[in-house]
Amino acid sequence: xxxxxxxxxxxxxxxxxxxxxxxxxxxxxxxxxxxxxxxxxxxxxxxxxxxxxxxxxxxxxxxxxxxxxxxxxxxxxxxxxxxxxxxxxxxxxxxxxxxxxxxxxxxxxxxxxxxxxxxxxxxxxxxxxxxxxxxxxxxxxxxxxxxxxxxxxxxxxxxxxxxxxxxxxxxxxxxxxxxxxxxxxxxxxxxxxxxxxxxxxxxxxxxxxxxxxxxxxxxxxxxxxxxxxxxxxxxxxxxxxxxxxxxxxxxxxxxxxxxxxxxxxxxxxxxxxxxxxxxxxxxxxxxxxxxxxxxxxxxxxxxxxxxxxxxxxxxxxxxxxxxxxxxxxxxxxxxxxxxxxxxxxxxxxxxxxxxxxxxxxxxxxxxxxxxxxxxxxxxxxxxxxxxxxxxxxxxxxxxxxxxxxxxxxxxxxxxxxxxxxxx
Length: 423
What we know:
It is a single chain. By secondary structure, the chain is mainly α. Helix content is 59%, strand content 0%.
C-alpha cells in the first residue's frame, strides 16, 4: 500500500464527514489507500469502484484483497498467479474461474496433481496444452484422459497399460490401433472374440497367448488356425472336429499325429487310400471300422491285412485270390477255414502236402486235381487215398505196395486187377 499525503488524507476525511458516496472517493481521484486511512474498509474500496489493477499499482498485497475481490477480477491484469496464491487464493478458486492451468503450472504455483485435486478436468488440461503423460503423472485416470479426447496411442505412450485403457472405456480395436499387441490386449482383459473383431489375426491371437479353444470360441475357422500356426493337435484339443480339420487343410498324416483315429477319419470321409498315405496301418483302419474290401481298394497288401487281424475268409469275401492270400502269409489251413476249396488252394500254389496239413482230405485233394502220387508224397496213407476215391491201380502207380493197399482196405481181387502179383 502506498503512502498517503496529508492533502489526500484531508480530502478523504472531508468526504467522510459529508457522508459522500463511495464512488466519490474514486471520482475525486483519491488513492484507495486514502479510504483506509480514514478507517473505511476494503469492502468500501471495492464499492467505490477501485479495480484490482488500481490496487496493484498502489502496491496492495493479494492477502489484503482476498475475500473481497473474487479471483475473476484478477484475470488479464498485472497480478500473477503466484501473487494470488501467496495471498490465499486457492486452486479451487482458480479452477472455478477457469484460470489457465498451464500458467499456474509454468509459474510453479501448483503441480498437475494439485490442479487435478483442485477441480481441473482432464479436458481443460489437454486444451491448455498438457500432455497425456503429464495428466497421467498427475493422477488422471485413463477414462478421464479418454474423455479429454486423448487417443489410446497417447495413453499407451503416457504409460497406461492396456488393462487401464480397457477400464477407461477404450475398445479393443482402439487399443490395437493405439499400438497395443494382442498379448497386451489379452493380459488387459479382452476376450479372443473381441481381439478378432478388433482386427487381430488368428496368428496374432496365438502369439498373444490365446489357445486354439479360445480361437474356436471366437469363431476363427480351422483354416484360420492352421494359417496362424496352430497344429492339428492344437485344433483337436481346442474342440475342432476332424471334419473341420480336414476342410481346414490339414493332411491325414497331421490328423493322425494329432491323435485322431482311423475311425474318426472314416466318419470325416477320408478314403482308405488317404489314410494309408497318411500313415495309418491296416490294423488302425480295421479297428476304425473299415471293411477289408475298403482296405484293399486303399492299396493295402494281403500281408498288411493279415497282420491287421483280417482272416483269410475276409480276404476271400473282399475278392482276394488264394494265390494272393498265400503270398500274404496265410496258411493253407487258414484259407480252408476261410472258405477256399482245395481246388482253389491247389490253383493258388499250395502243394498237396500244404493241403493235407491244412485239413483237406485225400478226396478233396483228388477232386482238386492232385495225383495219387502227390498225395502219397504229401503223407496221405493208402487207406486215406482209397477213401478219397483213388483206385488200387492209382495207388499202385503212386508207389504204394500191395501190402499197403491191402492194409488200406483194397481187396485181393482189386490188388490183382491193379497188377499186383502178391499172394
